[in-house]
């Protein structure tokens, strides 16, 4: 059965952990979906993992639409969520409606994700939710603010921890259906998870979140430089390198074609 937002809420209540992985094209999305990932996120990390940029900032809405449509075509069961790229929603609620509207209408994904939890962002989340566009929040380390925050752990002082906790409440009250908690202390993520009704999805936020997300390029060992909280489950870089070298050798030695 296809995963719905209502199902995610139920899983939180049942303490059945929610699994989320990122995807950037049809082939990867199809494999992750058939393997059983509950949610597939077309994360703007694809700017780095698939497009070779240094940060997520250069990604355009057009490029995101192209990737999200390909991902969605590969998915039958998982709920598909698409990041809104940098500066396609921060300007105003109107801009967010235009961008999120295009994402849903032109790609078929079921929800969008955006970063931040201050009053302006919460207002935007409320507006999108009210018109029927489900929104996943994302707080803590928000990579679209890299020039401001760096890639450091967030919420390490009592003041910033309090601020992140407040942002979680803001987003939950604004109608977000779930929130990604990135690179914050485990006890803070635990406290947020226990005190909001919607599922939290952690990445570098400890084991007490309702679900976990990993960048699939990190899971597969495709990225040479991984964040400290990532766990490679295989080394596709080595596997692809060996396969490529074997092919080259076979062609040169006239062992392929037979
Ligand atoms: O873009 C991305 O991959 C993300 C996840 C790390 C949550 O936002
Ligand atoms: Na992202």
Number of strands: 8
* Beta-strand fraction estimate: 5-15%
- Beginning-to-end CA distance, first to last residue: 45 Å
- Identify the overall geometry: globular
Strand order of the largest sheet: 1-2-3-4-5-6-7-8
Determine the CATH topology.
Answer: TIM Barrel
Mean pLDDT, nearest integer? 98
Helix/strand/pairing category: alpha/beta
| Portion in helices | 40-55%
Radius of gyration: 19 Å
Order of helices and strands: HEHEHHEHEHEHHEHEEHH
Query: So how many helices?
Result: 11
CATH architecture: Alpha-Beta Barrel
Output the CATH homologous superfamily: Phosphoenolpyruvate-binding domains
Question: Could you state the oligomeric state of the chains shown?
Answer: single chain
Number of domains: 1
The kinds of small molecule bound in this structure are:
3-methyl-2-oxobutanoic acid, sodium ion
Binding site for Mg(2+): 44, 83, 115
Subcellular location: Cytoplasm
Subunit structure: Homodecamer; pentamer of dimers.
EC number: 2.1.2.11
